[in-house]
Write a structure and sequence with these properties.
There is one protein chain. The protein is mainly alpha-helical and 174 residues long. It has one domain. Helices cover 79% and strands 0% of the residues. It is built from four helices and no strands. Helix 1 packs antiparallel against helix 2 and helix 1 packs antiparallel against helix 3. The model has no long low-confidence stretch (mean pLDDT 77). Keywords: Membrane, Transmembrane, Transmembrane helix.
Length: 174
């Protein structure tokens, strides 16, 4: 839009401006203020769009970092699951055989010898399972889900229920 200059009106003879001149000046000022308001609204819209794009980039970065953490945690969990299986099967069988033979030579009954070896294997298996679950908690993308909840996305009730249960089981961090 181009600004129009107000038309000059001849004086009415008493030294003051002509009566139509005030109306033209007000119309030009109103038009200029409307143009400025539209420019301000457009600028605010561009700033808002830029802020939304920055927030999207930040959320994308958080998601990528969270996925990298989850991938690393999943690898650790698989390692501990392998340890659990190894101790749960191979070591337990070998230990049971050796311990049962030892307890039998010391005069213990078959039931006592088998019970002691079974408890030992169960304890090692429980330790491995506990470590695997501890690392698998990192695959829940908690930071991303927390940020999505902050911006109003996601199911708050289901996430809070699982997060609350997870927080009660989790050890405090220093």
């Amino acid at each position: 839009m181009s600004e129009e200059t107000p038309r000059s009106q001849p004086d009415d003879g008493d030294g003051g401006p002509a009566p139509g001149r005030d109306d033209d000046a007000r119309a030009a000022a109103g038009k200029a203020s409307l143009e400025q308001a539209l420019r301000d609204i457009g600028g605010a819209g561009r700033e808002g769009l830029g802020a939304a794009a920055d927030a999207g980039r930040a959320l994308r970065g958080l998601l990528l970092a969270d996925l990298a953490l989850a991938r690393a945690a999943l690898g650790q969990a698989l390692i501990w699951m392998g340890v659990t299986v190894a101790f749960g099967v191979a070591a337990c069988l070998l230990t049971m055989a050796a311990l049962i033979a030892l307890l039998q030579t010391l005069g213990m009954s078959w039931l006592g010898a088998l019970s002691i070896t079974a408890v030992t294997c169960i304890a090692v298996t429980a330790l491995g399972a506990w470590m695997a679950v501890r690392y698998l908690r990192h695959t829940g993308l908690d930071a991303t889900r927390r940020q999505l909840r902050r911006v109003g996305l996601g199911d708050d009730e289901a996430d809070e229920d699982t997060a609350g249960a997870r927080d009660r089981d989790e050890e405090p961090r220093a």
